[in-house]
Amino acid sequence: MGEAIRAVLADDHYLVREGARQLLETSGEVTVVSAVGDADELLDAVRRLRPDVVVTDIRMPGGAWRQGFEGIDAAHAVRAGHPGVGVVVLSQYGDALFALELFKHGTEGFAYLLKDRVGDLDELLGAIRAVASGGSVIDPKVVEGLMARHHVRGGPESLTPRERDVLREMARGRSNGAIARALHLSVSSVEKNVNSIFAKLGLENSGDVHRRVAAVLAYLKP
Q1: How far apart are CA 52 and CA 97, in angstroms?
Q2: For 116, which DSSP code?
Q3: I need a surface site. Which of 30, 93, 168, 208 has the fewest CB within 10 A?
């Protein structure tokens, strides 16, 4: 195992914050260098400690931040001042409009997860790894909820069930190889499905993880 990822946690609920700290540190993959209770403290901790990743709640009290969007505004401020720091935003909102607000300036280094992912260590660690390397993740539940209401832009037909499965895995920030393992498919089969998805959506194919998530968001955007 390589060097642990250095993270700053931000949540105004002490028990949630400390629970997340203990969960991440028991994995052996993450060292929590600071755990703070508001967006101002978060920015100060990032400035002082220069972590690899920030994990923040979407809502926090205090400061000159938009109410209900404090974590998203802080995420943008972190990336503006420290472009190498990845940010995972944890939210209770399954509405894609909040995810789109996070990704409005670009997707690289951002993840949007629902808060129940805190209890799913593999999902949370996967998002932390992704943003630490410049990738992006959007919660598959957000994608799944909207996919049921959307048709592809290239015609009246919907994506096939297999293509929907692949699209959900793409939204997790997974590579073609990881998608193949998750869905028990060959890599060549995944590649064919990915190419079909991009073709149907009228989007240029790209191997970059954050561009793949951008494609998912472009498809889901109202």
Answers
A1: 27
A2: G
A3: 208
Determine contact, residues 110/89, Cβ cutoff 8 Å.
Answer: yes
At residue 47, the pLDDT reads 96
Q: What is the pLDDT of residues 157-176, one digit of tens each?
A: 567 889 888 888 887 778 89
Q: Select from 188, 121, 192, 139 the least CA-distant residue to 163.
A: 192
Task: Please provide the average confidence, as pLDDT, over all residues in the chain.
Answer: 84
- Give the closest residue to 143 by CA, choosing from 120, 172, 123: 172
136 to 14, 99, 213: CA distances (angstroms) = 27, 12, 6
User: Other CB atoms closer than 10 Å to residue 162's CB: what's the count?
Assistant: 15
For residue 153, with 0-12 CB atoms within 10 Å meaning exposed, 13-18 middle and 19 or more buried, which class applies? exposed
Per cent of the chain over pLDDT 70 is 84
